[in-house]
Structures are given as structure tokens and as C-alpha cells.
Amino acid sequence: MFPVYPLYPVEPVRGEGNYVFDAAGTRYLDFYGGHAVISIGHAHPRYVQAVSEQVARIGFYSNSVENSLQQRLADTLRSVSGYKDHKLFLVNSGAEANENAIKVASFHTGRERVLAFSGAFHGRTSGAVEVTDNPRINSPFNRTDKVTFVPLGNLDAVRRELATETYCAVIIEGIQGVAGIQVPDNAFLQALREVTLQTGTCLILDEVQSGYGRTGRFFAHQHAEIEADLVTMAKGMGCGFPIGGVLIAPHFEAWPGMLGTTFGGNHLACAAAQSVLDVIADEQLVSNAAKVGDELLRQLSQIEGISNVRGRGLMIGFDVEEPASQVRRRLVLKHHVFTGGAGTHTIRLLPALTVQQAHVDECLEALRRAIYETEN
Ligand SMILES: Cc1ncc(COP(=O)(O)O)c(C=O)c1O
Sign of the CA dihedral 131, 135, 139, 145? Predict the structure, then answer.
């Protein structure tokens, strides 16, 4: 393997609900959700059944034939998300969703510039990495002068840039994840919607990490009661099966061949995504995320040794004094709890939306212990 990932010496071989297990049967509490991917819990019986039945029937055929599973998924997504009039384009990952959203915006406006925000992460493919604020992962090939970054929340800078009417789109995360859980103000998002409309700029909401019910609304930007022109999603959409999507407002026109992908929207991906949405709706997981998340946030802010508790629902960040990597390592290896990191001192919590108060109690007990212990 090309060694680009720092690894824990742990190999989960089985998952069940909010836990994963290694080959020796050791149980790990999963407050990382495989990086916000595990939305309805590991090996949910309805998901297992839907995917197994579909692969036994037909797993794949190309996008040159009808596939009613796609339409059913689009109808369910529109109804569950409240984006009733948008259309759906299906892809395979978050980066690909953002690539296509930018392309649609650029085709539509005829403009080539994109405005993005400090700390943004939108993926690692060519266009997505250009609008990502991290020069370390941007190769010389990817660097162009078509992207401007402005500080998150700085409306004057946004207004100044968009007044030039040279931007096809503004791209913004519903909540910045990789930057360590930075929540944009509702008022800022509302003003952003206004100024994009005034300047003929498309608004792209990247909900790849913050979407699919994680924050207590279906998409995080819906806390601000705004509607975007383009909404991108992936991660929780297939609960581990690779699938992404772009919700596209009705004023964008499609033409044959405008966008395309071999694997996007295949039968197996649609079956996985359909069962995720069905479970989210039937088990009321969006309101569970809000309820359990509120309690998790409240209890976290009472723990000594942690600060700046922030986030919404089950997308939570907080800071520890020690390097977060050391605390997280102890959490995994000694207390058997998976968490996420961001930057030097931030820990991220991104559990499955099925999480219950008993899991919260277990996680917080482990966290208290891990914070007070030193290495050894
Ligand atoms: C907000 C956001 N956008 C896009 C991506 C890229 O998604 P993928 O890794 O599926 O390409 C990520 C991944 O972490 C993300 O957090």
C-alpha cells in the first residue's frame, strides 16, 4: 500500500450498531462513525437485507438504461430533506459531488471564479482541492488563480469579492469539519444567500460531513432557514457504501452529456442509500441526533480539562490541553473508544445517529479518564 494514512494498530472486523469489534472480540465504542460515514449504525439489519437482496438481483448496469431505484431515491431524498423541487445527480464521493456542483455553476453562469472560506475542506480531486484551504495537499498542477479564500463570517470581504460579478459560485460547508467544527452564524448564512442572489452567484452548500441528519436538521444550513442552489452530500448517504449526490435547483438546465459517471447511481449504491433514508425516517434519527447531541454538548462543557465545546447535534468539537492525538490514542488503545481529530488540540465526535444516552455516558467516562492520565 502507498503509505499515506497514519494507522492505529487496531483492525475492526465486525460492526454492530455503535460498536466495532476486532478479531479477538474486543469491543470498541464508535464515536467517530468511520469519519462521519456510519449514519444508521454498523450492520443495521434493514441495510444488510436491502444490500444483500439487491446484489443478488442486480448490482450494476450503466447509466445508459433506466434505473427506477434512482428516481425512488431522489423522491425520498427530496421529501426527507425538504428540497422538494431540486433534482438529483448521483456520484461516488464527496469530492466528486463538489466537482460537479462547481461545474454546474460554471456552465450556468459562464463565469470561472469560485469564492471559498479559510479552513475549508471540500475534497482532494482537482477542483475540490483547489477550493480547499490547505496548500500542503494542493499539487502545483492544482494551483490556479481562480479561487479566492476569505475568512469565514467576514461579510464585507464576501460582498467586495462578489460585487465583481466574476464568481460562478460560493462554496461553504454547512459546518466546517476538517477545520475543527467551525459553525457559521445563521445571520452570516442568510446574508450570504442574499448577496449571492444579488450578484448572480450560485450558492453551493457542502453538506458532505454535516448533512444527512447529523446536526439535528437534515442539512446543517437548514438551521439558518436558507435554501442553496446546489447541495452536495456523500459520507452518511450510503452508511459505508460509496455514494454521493448533488441536489440541483430547478433553474439549472441539463443537457445530454453535460455530466456523467460510470458508477454513480448504480443499483447497489441506490439500494444502500434508500435503506439509509428509510431507516432515518422510520427511526426518527434526525430528532435523535438533536436530542442526544444537545445532551452530549451540555455534559461535555462540564468536563474539566476540555474547552471550547462547539457544534450542533452529533457534529461536535472540543479542545484538550495535551496534543489531541495522544488523548485519542489512549482512548482507542486503552479505553476502546474511537474519536476523530482536527488540528493539534481538537477532538471531533461524529457518532452514528442511532447513538443513545448510555453510549454518551460510556464515552464521557472514558474521556474523563483519558484526559487525566498521562502517557504510560
Ligand atoms: C466537508 C467535506 N467535503 C468534502 C469531502 C470529501 O469527501 P470524499 O472524501 O468522499 O471525497 C469531505 C471529506 O472529509 C468533507 O468533510
Answer: positive
Best probe residue, ligand 1, of 37, 124, 172, 209 (max atoms within 8 Å of C-beta) = 209
Q: In angstroms, what is the span from residue 138 Cα to ligand 1's centroid?
A: 15
Residue with cell 480547499: 132
What is the number of the ligand 1 atom nearest to the C-alpha of 95? 11
Per the confidence metrics, is the pTM higher than 0.85?
yes
Contact 319, 346 (CB under 8 A): yes
Please say whether the beta carbons of 277 and 75 come within 8 A: no
Q: Mutate which of 219, 235, 243 to test ligand 1's pocket (most atoms within 8 Å of Cβ)? A: 235
pLDDT by residue (tens digit) across 143-158?
Answer: 889 999 999 999 999 9
The arrangement of strands across the sheet holding 337-338 comes to 12-16, 19-22, 27-30, 337-338
Residues with CB under 6 A from ligand 1: 93-95, 98, 121-123, 173, 177-178, 206, 208-209, 234
Q: Which domains does the chain have, with CATH numbers?
A: 12-44+284-372 (3.90.1150.10), 45-282 (3.40.640.10)
What phi, psi does 202 have (nearest 5°)? -80, 140
30 CA from centroid of ligand 1 (Å): 19
pLDDT digits (tens, 9 = 90+) for 294-346: 999 999 999 999 999 999 999 999 999 999 999 999 999 999 999 999 999 99
